[in-house]
Amino acid sequence: MEESIRITTPSWKRDHENREARLISRRAAAAREMSVDKVLLFVILALTLFGLVMVYSASAMLAQKRYGSQFYFLIRQSVWALVGLVGMAAAIRIDYRQYKRPGVALGLLVISIVMLLVVFFCPVVNGTHRWFRYGAASLQPSEITKPALVLILAYFLERQADRISEFRVTFLPAACVAGMMMGLVALEPDLGTSLSMGLIFTVVIFVAGAKLRHLATMVIPAIPALAYMLMVPWRFQRLMDFLDPWKNQTTSSFQTVQSLISIGSGGLTGLGFAQGKQKLFYLPSPHTDFIFAVIGEELGLIGAGLIIIAFGAVAWRGLRAARMAPDQFGQLLAMGLTVMIAAQAFFNISVALSLLPAKGIPLPFISCGGSSLAINLVAAGVLMNISKHSSEYRV
């Protein structure tokens, strides 16, 4: 009897029930979409606030000597933090799928290349062509180039998803675009950022499904490029100083040695906030490239360890957003942005600990550097937006 009733149920009634079920499902998805990854949001806000505090601690004496105000760098960093937080809030609200348009990807590619070319006509700062400067304001094009590379790769590789295993059609064009952008950044020169972009490219295209033998071909241009870079005397000297930093501790490896002394002086609990000594004109760039050394000295192993854990949490939530993304574009975009932030943190901390040769790479959300802070905050906002939409499809 029950079987006959079920079979004779009118089709219009079944269609109505199906429509009701779909409507309920869409409403539930819309409700879930409103939530933000609170863990990621909290960690990003905490790192940004902590960064402002440490920038003041690390730069107060330097700012007083150079500019007559101990708050000079803090004020600049606070302005950029406000700009970045506004950008992050906007990125959280904008559906990341809006970026999946030819005009957005190609526009970013053109803008990035033009900026990387124009910067060579700007005045030299510290022996490099890295910044656009206008009065007290400055902008580093390479910071914009990193997320631009992520978006371009995500857009192109999703369109080529069915042909990802073809070397000439997919891998080679992607590698050429990435190589061109990396080459321009390396010529500034900014080898650290260029290497970070290389890591981003490798991870993103591997996640997209590229063959390992295609990735192995990257060694071919990498060997002569590395040989050329080591032919530059000061780069070769940095490599030697990395192998034995104490040999030239008063000259070429002065930065690394002072960083190690700073971190070692902190012990387990540190000397206390603003009580560090190495930042008093011993440790170069204490508020930018070597701010992690100041953290280690003032807050000790516990404080430095908490910072590493915080970046581990950012990587965890970013990888989670990538894994749960509803489409390949979101997956690759989240993966690339996560690698961009995590790799930069890894490089900075490793340099401060003398685990890598000295390179000028800021610590995300913490180091004094306006364009870096703003770009990383916007990238975090995009990550949170991807995480919001992933809940429509998976739990």
Note down, in words, how this protein is organized:
There is one protein chain. A hairpin with a 2-residue loop joins β1 (132-134) and β2 (137-139). The protein has 395 residues and is mostly helical. 70% of the residues lie in helices and 2% in strands. The longest helix has 33 residues, at 291-323. The model is unreliable at 1-7, 27-32 and 391-395 (pLDDT under 50). It has one domain (51-390). It is built from 15 helices and two strands. The protein has a two-stranded antiparallel ribbon with strand order 1-2.
Secondary structure: elements and pairs:
Elements: H1 2-7, H2 11-33, H3 38-67, H4 72-93, H5 102-118, E1 132-134, E2 137-139, H6 141-159, H7 167-186, H8 191-208, H9 212-216, H10 219-230, H11 233-243, H12 254-266, H13 291-323, H14 328-352, H15 370-390
Antiparallel strand pairs: 1-2
Helix pairs in contact: 3-4, 3-13, 3-15, 4-15, 5-6, 6-7, 6-8, 6-14, 7-8, 8-14, 12-13, 13-14, 13-15, 14-15
